[in-house]
């Protein structure tokens, strides 16, 4: 059970840190970007140390750490908006894939339940540093805020309130699943 809770927690924390890395980039805070990036790389190293995963999971952790460091170049000295979401997809996708490969038979459930709480905290991290509010809907690459472009495809966004509701449902579902 400890491993399951740790996987859930790491998935949520890492995604939140990734959001704060982006948010500090929008806010032009090099100290904030550096702190978030350092904590993201530390999280990758922690997973490598704690779980000693198979070699292919370790490759995904290394990819995530490298992309986390690369994101600094995307955000500094000027924001390269066309690279943010693709780099973000690699950072978080590689990390989640590494967690999955630790033991796919047991890690997929906490990863699944962590998705919406992680996404909610990620969006709060993106919004708070530059705007001081979590409920900001501006600053997207789509004037309507309804889609995000990742690898040249438009993906529909969920609203902030939908993310909040789905995060609550996911957390309750996770703890109910733990009790069963």
Q: Taking strands numbered 1, 2, ... along the chain, how are they ordered across the largest sheet?
A: 1-2
Give the percentage of residues in beta strands: under 5%
Regarding quaternary structure, what we see is: single chain
Per DSSP E runs of 2 or more residues, the count of β-strands stands at 2
Q: Outline, from the CA principal axes?
A: globular
The major pleated sheet works out as: 2 strands, antiparallel
Tell me the helix content. Answer: over 70%
Radius of gyration: 16 Å
Structure classification = mainly alpha
Number of DSSP helical runs: 6
Mean pLDDT: 88
N-to-C terminal Cα separation, in Å?
11 Å
Which stretches are poorly predicted, pLDDT < 50 over at least 5 residues? none
Order of H and E elements: HHHHHEEH
Number of domains as seen in the coordinates: 1
Summarize the structure.
The chain is mainly alpha-helical. 77% of the residues lie in helices and 4% in strands. Strands 1-2 form a two-stranded antiparallel ribbon.
List the helices and strands and how they pair.
Elements: H1 2-26, H2 30-51, H3 55-75, H4 81-102, H5 104-131, E1 147-150, E2 153-156, H6 160-179
Antiparallel strand pairs: 1-2
Describe the structure.
By secondary structure, the chain is mainly alpha-helical. The protein has one domain (2-179). Helices cover 77% and strands 4% of the residues. Strands 1-2 form a two-stranded antiparallel sheet. 35% of the residues are buried. The model has no long low-confidence stretch (mean pLDDT 88).
């Amino acid at each position: 059970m400890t491993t399951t809770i740790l996987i859930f927690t790491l998935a949520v924390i890492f995604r939140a840190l990734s959001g704060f890395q982006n948010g500090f980039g929008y806010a032009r805070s090099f100290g904030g970007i550096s702190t978030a990036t350092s904590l993201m790389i530390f999280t990758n190293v922690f997973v490598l140390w704690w779980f000693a995963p198979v070699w292919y999971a370790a490759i995904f952790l290394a990819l995530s750490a490298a992309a986390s460091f690369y994101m600094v170049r995307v955000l500094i000295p000027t924001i390269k908006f066309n690279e943010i979401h693709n780099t973000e997809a690699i950072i978080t996708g590689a990390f989640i894939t590494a967690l999955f490969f630790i033991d796919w038979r047991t890690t997929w459930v906490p990863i699944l339940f962590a998705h919406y709480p992680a996404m909610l905290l990620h969006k709060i991290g993106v919004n708070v540093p530059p705007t001081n509010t979590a409920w900001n809907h501006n600053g997207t690459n789509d004037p309507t805020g309804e889609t995000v472009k990742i690898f040249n495809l438009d993906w529909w966004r969920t609203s902030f309130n939908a993310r909040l509701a789905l995060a609550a449902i996911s957390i309750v579902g996770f703890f109910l699943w733990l009790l069963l």
